[in-house]
Fold:
Amino acid sequence: MKKKRALIFGVTGQDGAYLSKFLLNKNYIVFGVKRRSSIINTQRIDDIYEDINYKSNFVLLYGDLTDASSILNLIKKVNPNEIYNLAAQSHVKVSFEVPEYSADVNGLGTLRILEAIRSLNLEKKVKFYQAGTSEMFGKTKSKFQNEKTPFHPVSPYGVSKCFAHWITKNYRDAYGIYACNGILFNHESPIRGETFVTKKIIQGLVRIKQGLQKKLFLGNLYSKRDWGHARDYVEVMWKMLQQNKPDDFVIGTGKTFTIKDFVNKAAKKIKLDIRWTGKGIKEKAINIENKKIIIECRARYFRPLEVDYLKSNALRAKKILKWFPKKSLDNLIDEMIEHELENNND
Structure:
């Protein structure tokens, strides 16, 4: 039986790495796309080359979502059965600092892929997955968010992803492309980037516990998020492309926790006893053992516009795709702590 060929944009990111291994285990040939850079940033996928069962079916290619000809040539060369667009400028706060670049990569980059599929007459041959985000809901008034909840983005990142979402639907309707949007809520893992708050918290608390760091600086402690495990979420990306008809799905756990909840859970797991004091920007956490302040809030870590509350209703995904999250937030935090401890002991 001929192996399926998958093309993954953003292969060096958290989701790209997990999806690559998932598809390789499904006996795919995986073509991963990364931007050419003077910095080696393949650490998340280096283990693929070390695995004899993987490396013969994994090909790393160079490309850039800001370059239409690059995308066209890649798709023409690979002739994939499935395309997964996981590439993005994905940091919300950074999107306020580089809004034009965020819009170009996240929004127009998606359009360039879809236009390449159309230009190459692959509408009936290739299936396309677009990585959406709960940040598209932004300042929602809903108690939970599903596929019918209106978007209200409050960051350049969220706005750019809304464009990507709608242009994907537009090309699906106008040209008959099998194109799906996955509206994924926050999903983390041990290989999450260090600028993301969950990784920052775990890394900071472990280092404080080990005496390698004095303080952890955070922003809004009361933002509520629906956190899942990236490994669970890449499975549902694949499931979306295995259906008879393309559709859009909200993906999440349906449970919300504040940033402060996350900190408290992580601190308890590493036996770091803390006590909170103060309010607002002056709120801080004190290490009960030595009475030292180890967590403080800083204004620079607040976004110009905050998203205060996100909670998914993934009922359609559970019913149609038969997908259920396997990892709880506690499982996720355990994995992230274990990974950090192993790294610090190397």
Observations:
- Residues 89 and 102 are 5 Å apart (CA to CA).
- The first helix runs from residue 14 to 25.
- The mean pLDDT is 94.
